[in-house]
Each structure stands twice: as C-alpha cells, then as structure tokens.
Design brief:
This protein is of the alpha+beta class and 164 residues long. The protein has 5 helices and 7 strands. The two termini are 27 Å apart.
Length: 164
C-alpha cells in the first residue's frame, strides 16, 4: 500500500535528501556524469535547498510504501500549469504501481488548483522516462536548455499534458 504524504518538516526534507542521493547517483551519473550530479544534489536536493524551494512555493511529498519512504514528488502551481518538478522512485520499488499512483495524485492536484495542464522537463537522454511520460499522455513540446551554473546545463525536453 502506497501513501503520499506532504513533506513539510526538516525530517521529511532529510529523508528526501537521502532518497535523492540514492536515486540520482544510480540513475543520472550515466546520463550527465558524477560532477554535475554532485553539484545538482547539493544545489537542488539538499535538505536546505528543499526548505528554500518550499518557501518559494514548491510542494514536496513523500511516497511511502509499507511504511518505508521510497520516493518523492515536487510540484509548483503556476498561472496556467502545474509544474511537475520532481517524481522519483527507488529502483528497488519500481513496478509496484507507485509511479502510477503518484501521477494520479499529481493530476488530482492540478484539478484541485483548477489548472488545465501539467508540465515537466526531462533530460533529452533519459529515454525510458520520456517513453513513460508519453505513455501517460504527455507531449514533447520542444527542447529547453538551462544554465544551472558552475559550467553545467540541463539539456531537457519540455513535456506537457492536458488534464481533463
């Protein structure tokens, strides 16, 4: 049984930091390299960075499977879209419909906010994620390159889905 709970305490942020360290190193080092992942984990996924993002309007949620945190979600309400900033599940817990439940949760959140779209960015070389998002009804709306500092860029596709 998967629960999705709001992450709003320092302890939650530390749990997310720990999950991010495992998931990002396993998944993204082969795609963008260790130096960029080290930089991004510190800049975007440390407990302090998460706390700052929450203060700026991002909402974080922990996905808990059988009482164990196994993933997390981050979204931000924008004028016309719900920005899906992060959705990650430990590889050991993939295939248990946790991601599917998370996407239903995100769609419900967009509807609660009376938004018609969900948008996200995904690394152009993250082919499995791109296929999964397309299967869920997301459409690739084009490339987006973002300078994140320290000589690194995020080379992404922007994808969007209409919520009905």
């Amino acid at each position: 049984m998967t629960e999705i709970i709001i992450a709003d305490t320092k302890n939650h942020f530390l749990q997310i930091e720990k999950l991010a360290n495992i998931i990002w190193r396993e998944h993204y080092i082969p795609i963008v390299g260790k130096p960029q992942i080290d930089y991004m984990l510190d800049k975007y996924q440390s407990a302090g960075a998460i706390e700052r993002q929450v203060a700026e309007g991002f909402e974080y949620f922990l996905m808990v499977y059988e009482e164990t945190p196994v993933g997390y979600i981050s979204v931000k309400k924008e004028d016309e879209s719900l920005f899906l900033s992060k959705i990650y599940v430990l590889s050991s817990h993939r295939g248990k419909k946790i991601g599917k439940k998370a996407m239903l949760f995100i769609e419900a959140k967009a509807k609660d906010y009376q938004l018609k779209n969900i948008r996200l960015t995904v690394n152009i070389n993250n082919t499995n994620a791109i296929k999964a998002y397309e299967k869920l009804g997301f459409i690739n709306v084009g490339p987006l390159v973002t300078d994140i500092g320290n000589g690194f860029v995020m080379d992404d596709y922007q994808m969007a889905k209409t919520v009905v």
